[in-house]
What does this fold into?
Amino acid sequence: MSSIAAIILLSLISYLIGSLPSSVWIGKAFFDTDVREHGSGNAGATNTFRVLGKEIGTMVLLLDILKGLTASSLVLFLGSLAPGSERYINLQLLFGLLAVLGHIFPLYENFKGGKGIATLFGMLIAIHWVLALACLGLFVAVLLATKYVSLSSIFAAISFPIFSIFVFKRDEPLFIAFGIAAAILVVLTHQKNIVRLLNGEESKAKLFKARS
It folds into this structure.
């Protein structure tokens, strides 16, 4: 198989991995519940915590992170590339982004998915785990201060390109462009949350509340 054909195949696999809607399938299989019909109507981990409880929410969170981590790691199947090279990182970005898009627009569930934050985080772990921890640290700090998961996600996403440029001194053009695009994507997928935040109507996190 040629390298171009291999990249196309791995790109398709990345999208299909990202499309795996763990919250929807677990909810339907074990609780006869579609999480998209309850709470915020979102198929992500946060709404799963809210609807199905902390154990299932944690499981979905880890599975969504794993999707991004796995997709970005598919570059390992292209053995001729040197880890850490610009082409290697660019392909990690490509595969990871396709997984994020798959999470937001899942093929298996009529393209109605989550917001991609956990999958994006898993992708970042594969590419630059220290940067991922820095973004996670800011997420946790904002969450503890405000109790708003949406606001924490927005702050963490915006910090991604800022940390990349000014703290970790990354200079790969595509990596920086991706960071900016990812931040914009997160803001766009949180438009309703932003409106609720401005109106004082956004729900605060109760991630450790047991399922009723």
Q: What stands out?
A: Residues 3-198 form one domain.
